[in-house]
Amino acid sequence: MEGVPGISLSNVCKTYRTRGAEIVALEGMNLECPPGSFTALIGPSGCGKSTAMRIALGLEDHDAGEVRIAGQAPATATASGITGVAFQDAALLPWRSVARNVSLPLEVLGRDPQRYSHEIAKLIELVGLKGYENSLPGQLSGGMRQRVSIARSLITSPEVLFMDEPFGALDQIRRRQMNVELQRIWQETRSTALLVTHGIDEAVFLADYVVVMHANPGRVVEVIEVPFPRPRTEDLFSTHAFHELTDRIARVLHGN
Ligand code: ADP
């Protein structure tokens, strides 16, 4: 839908109540991701990043405020395949081949994977795993498993793609390679992407906007636009302008 934000959270509040204690996970959170943009959400542990993502996926209710995913209620968007999601630990089913892991969201939506064999093959090629269609996750490296997870998140051609620390388990060299790969894949799909990350480098390399959150209560404190043209290459990581921006974000993150 042209013009409708891919992701929109307005004044979202969420308090957890456990055994008499109250934890304000989100207080008046605002986030608006223009269609086709890439946003990175960064903040200390416990600032509500995962809570915000679970709410946006319709996996959790919020107490107040409004959430829209491509103009729809979160649960509706997830149930209709508008939303794709990739998690940190890749979360692949170990007994299913690469191709059958990629096709899983189709089955969840009640679609026949046979009818999507062309799309499945194309996505596996897009993430650089052609030839591994029949391999099992246990036969792949960590980086390859993450690629499967990303292919799987894209199989429904989601308008909106959520990624929660997708490369958290990788070392820095592989992580940077995957950042370049992810940029290429995302540029081909043109989905609205939201990446939750702890890595300032990763956020700046990938995003159009870096959204910085603070904890207690969880809230957005600043949105920083990233001006670097695309496609960005690994050289960007060592430029002066890149370090200036990561330093600035580190200061916002640490509140000074
Ligand atoms: P982040 O992803 O930024 O680390 P979370 O969204 O996981 O933060 O958590 C935000 C706050 O809410 C934390 O203080 C956390 O302990 C609390 N929290 C998260 N989930 C629950 C839950 N199911 N029950 C109680 N408290 C929770």
N to C succession of SSEs:
EEEHEHEHHHHEHEHEEH
Bound chemical compounds: adenosine-5'-diphosphate
Helix content class = 25-40%
| Low-confidence spans | none
The helix/strand class is: alpha/beta
Q: Output the number of helix runs.
A: 9
Strand content: 25-35%
Output the keywords:
6-stranded mixed sheet, alpha/beta, 256 residues, 3-stranded antiparallel sheet, binds adenosine-5'-diphosphate
Walkthrough of the structure:
The protein contains nine helices and nine strands. With 256 residues, it is α/β, with parallel strands linked by helices. A six-stranded mixed beta sheet has the order 5-6-7-3-8-9, sandwiched between helices. Strands 2-1-4 form a three-stranded antiparallel beta sheet. Helix 5 (117-126) crosses helix 6, helix 6 runs parallel beside helix 7 and helix 8 (200-206) packs across helix 9. The mean pLDDT is 91. Bound molecules: adenosine-5'-diphosphate. Adenosine-5'-diphosphate binds next to strand 1, strand 2 and helix 1.
Summary of the model, kept short:
It contains 9 helices and 9 strands.
Chain-wise SSE layout:
Elements: E1 7-18, E2 21-33, E3 38-42, H1 49-56, E4 64-69, H2 74-79, E5 83-87, H3 98-102, H4 104-108, H5 117-126, H6 142-154, E6 160-164, H7 172-189, E7 192-197, H8 200-206, E8 209-214, E9 219-225, H9 240-253
Parallel strand pairs: 3-7, 3-8, 5-6, 6-7
Antiparallel strand pairs: 1-2, 1-4, 8-9
Helix pairs in contact: 5-6, 6-7, 8-9
